[in-house]
Automatic annotation (TrEMBL):
It comes from Variovorax guangxiensis. Residues 33-178 form the Flavin reductase like domain. This is FMN reductase (NADH) RutF. Keywords: Flavoprotein, FMN, NAD, Oxidoreductase. Residues 1-22 are annotated as: Disordered. It catalyses: FMNH2 + NAD(+) = FMN + NADH + 2 H(+). It comes from the Bacteria. One of its GO terms (molecular function) is FMN reductase (NADH) activity. Catalyzes the reduction of FMN to FMNH2 which is used to reduce pyrimidine by RutA via the Rut pathway. The keyword Flavoprotein applies. Its EC number is 1.5.1.42. Gene3D superfamilies: Electron Transport, Fmn-binding Protein, Chain A (2.30.110.10). Residues 1-11 have a biased composition (Low complexity).
Amino acid sequence: MLHNAMASNPAPSSPNPALLPQGLQKADYRNAMARLGAAVNIITTDGPAGRAGFTASAVCSVTDEPPTLLVCLNRSASVYPAFKANGVLCVNVLAAGHQSLSALFGGKTPMDERFAAARWSSKSTGSPVLDDAAVSFDCRVVHATSAGTHDVLFCEAVSIAIGGAAQGLIYFDRRYHEIAAPLQH
Ligand SMILES: NC(=O)C1=CN([C@@H]2O[C@H](COP(=O)(O)OP(=O)(O)OC[C@H]3O[C@@H](n4cnc5c(N)ncnc54)[C@H](O)[C@@H]3O)[C@@H](O)[C@H]2O)C=CC1
Ligand SMILES: Cc1cc2nc3c(=O)[nH]c(=O)nc-3n(C[C@H](O)[C@H](O)[C@H](O)COP(=O)(O)O)c2cc1C
């Protein structure tokens, strides 16, 4: 269960809301991060604490042995308690055409409305798997640590669903960009 994994480490000293180390302003950091293009993902969970999902760009591969990804989740998000209690999640990598779905899962919309906007199935963990995702990683959360405002969740993939989308989706400069696979020669 995620009780043991999430927030198992003491949170580092609270960040000063205005100033970051070396006097960097939070806005400077965000403006810089906006230049770091990333895939967009909808992270979902289901279990005793209910169904939940949110949009995340802070996702990356950690190791392929065992197959492990990390997901960074803000502890102040409304979905945090569900992820903490369920201990399982699915990373659904979005494809071209998913821009409005990404915005819907990006905050403030009631959970049922978020899920009503797309078709879902499930695999081993029971977390919702987006039907037309570029790829989905069904995972158990095996470890978590706190860093500033976020928990970093280490997620071991137990099954994978590869989708057929021809074009991917990247979030760069606070906008979505569709990317096509290069033509075969
Ligand atoms: N890692 C995160 O928690 C992220 C949160 N967001 C949320 O979505 C909203 C809209 O984002 P943008 O349009 O890109 O404008 P923005 O100016 O708020 O963010 C620019 C970039 O800074 C980073 N960032 C934003 N909030 C962050 C946070 N709390 N912790 C760590 N990195 C963060 C992300 O790389 C983001 O693309 C943000 O205000 C934030 O609430 C967006 C991207 C990542
Ligand atoms: C493009 C984009 C990327 C985001 N990436 C993250 C992320 O990596 N981690 C995170 O905790 N929140 C991220 N968010 C914000 C969450 O999606 C949002 O806080 C979440 O839906 C919870 O909102 P709620 O508290 O209204 O339910 C992102 C939002 C957008 C639009």
